[in-house]
């Protein structure tokens, strides 16, 4: 059950120190151009980035940690400014920056009802950045 999985995750967390996880924020559901006309400005890098992002909670079955946070880009383009203020410029793209992170994957043993934990590398989005679009040649 989910309850059991979370208990197990909590137990593992006390044995294997985990990186600090940034706070999860509600998804505004759109490219938050309005954040850039607010004063005083936010102090968080994720909100001040020209490719702003939020952190959302993810779950991966049979892995430790079971829950982890991942960056999600909020804009397809990037925030830019003209004389009228901030706007989303679709000439550029917001893309996620990934980092490899080690998880322990729970794999059942062939011969009995126990399992073993195998270290596996997974790419986790940690931030977003503004890039030139890929050129189609
Ligand atoms: C980013 O801005 C939004 C809207 O002002 C706010 O709700 C959220 O807490 C901010 N996030 C951080 C990490 O400061
Ligand atoms: C289960 O099987 C594995 C090998 O597949 C063995 O290493 C382990 O000791 C066994 N565990 C038990 C409780 O029998």
Describe the structure.
The protein has 137 residues and is mainly beta. It has a single domain, classed as Cystine Knot Cytokines, subunit B (Ribbon), CATH 2.10.90.10. 13% of the residues lie in helices and 43% in strands. The chain has helices at 2-15, 45-48, and strands spanning 53-59, 63-64, 67-73, 78-82, 85-89, 93-108, 115-131. It has a three-stranded antiparallel sheet with strand order 2-6-7. A hairpin with a 2-residue loop joins strand 4 (78-82) and strand 5 (85-89). The longest helix is centred in the N-terminal third of the chain and has 14 residues, at 2-15. The mean pLDDT is 89.
Explain the layout of strands and helices.
Blueprint: H1 2-15, H2 45-48, E1 53-59, E2 63-64, E3 67-73, E4 78-82, E5 85-89, E6 93-108, E7 115-131
Antiparallel strand pairs: 1-3, 2-6, 4-5, 6-7
The structure holds 2-acetamido-2-deoxy-beta-D-glucopyranose (NAG) (2 copies).
Main location: secreted
Organism: Gouania willdenowi (Blunt-snouted clingfish)
Subcellular location: Secreted
Provide a concise account of the structure shown.
The chain contains 2 helices and 7 strands.
Between the first and last Cα atoms, what is the distance in angstroms? 51 Å
**What's the helical proportion of residues?**
10-25%
* Ligand kinds: 2-acetamido-2-deoxy-beta-D-glucopyranose
Low-confidence stretches: none
CATH arch. level architecture: Ribbon
**What characterizes the major β-sheet?**
3 strands, antiparallel
Strand content: 35-45%
Write out the CATH superfamily name.
Cystine-knot cytokines
Number of helices: 2
Radius of gyration: 19 Å
Number of strands: 7
Overall number of structural domains? 1
Return the structural class.
Answer: mainly beta
By CATH reckoning, the class would read Mainly Beta
Q: What's the overall geometry?
A: elongated
CATH topology: Cystine Knot Cytokines, subunit B
Strands of the widest sheet, in order across it, are 2-6-7
The H/E string reads: HHEEEEEEE
